[in-house]
Design brief:
Blueprint lengths: L1 H13 L5 E4 L4 E3 L2 E3 L1 H17 L7 E2 L1 H21 L9 H10 L5 E9 L5 H13 L2 H8 L4 E8 L6 E9 L3
Parallel strand pairs: 4-6
Antiparallel strand pairs: 1-5, 2-3, 5-7, 6-7
Helix pairs in contact: 1-5, 2-5
InterPro entries: CAP_dom, CAP_sf
Protein name: SCP domain-containing protein
Organism: Rubritalea halochordaticola
């Protein structure tokens, strides 16, 4: 059964929505188990930085502003999954988030990775599934390894096992 859940999660991770780039200035229940959203956010952020460091790139700094923008989007995806009863992954509203990042937070260039994982209960398995999926996707990998210095990340879980939704936003302040 663990193998089946891992395969389902890996397949979902591979179905991650395409990356979007724009140049511009508690606890949750997952398939009967409990996962801390904050712990998963920290683990995902750490793993993304490990990917960067392993390639000689600097670690990303965590941005509270980008965290909040990412949280709004993860909340929307989870709410849509709750109301529709289906996996609901998208970049809807990215242009607006990028505009806020530029105008209110001072980031001249932004990008976004989104992902969903369903069927896994442990933070480490979910984080592995999502980061491996991102690194196996050319566009997502490009965002992770690009010349960004700041990132925010947010996790929200839909009800009834409809998935753990993740949004990671990247920002750059220099040209």
């Amino acid at each position: 059964m663990k193998t089946c859940s891992l395969i389902i999660s890996l397949v979902l991770a591979c179905l991650l929505a395409s990356c979007t780039v724009q140049d511009a200035n508690p606890r949750v229940v997952i398939a009967g188990g409990h996962v801390s959203e904050e712990k998963l956010e920290s683990e995902l952020f750490s793993r993304v930085n490990s990917e960067r460091l392993s390639r000689g790139l600097p670690a990303l700094y965590r941005s509270r502003g980008l965290d909040l923008l990412a949280q709004q989007h993860s909340d929307r995806m989870a709410a849509k999954a709750n109301s529709s009863g289906r996996i609901a992954i998208s970049h809807d509203g990215f242009a607006e988030r990028a505009s806020i990042a530029r105008d209110e937070l001072g980031y001249h260039r932004t990008a976004e990775n989104v992902g969903v994982s369903a069927g896994l209960r442990e933070v480490n398995l979910i984080a592995t599934s999502l980061v491996d999926g991102w690194m196996d996707s050319r566009g997502h990998r490009k965002n992770i390894l690009a010349n960004y210095r700041y990132a925010g990340i947010a996790v929200r879980t839909a009800s009834h096992g409809r998935g753990v939704y993740v949004t990671q936003m990247f920002g750059s302040v220099g040209r």
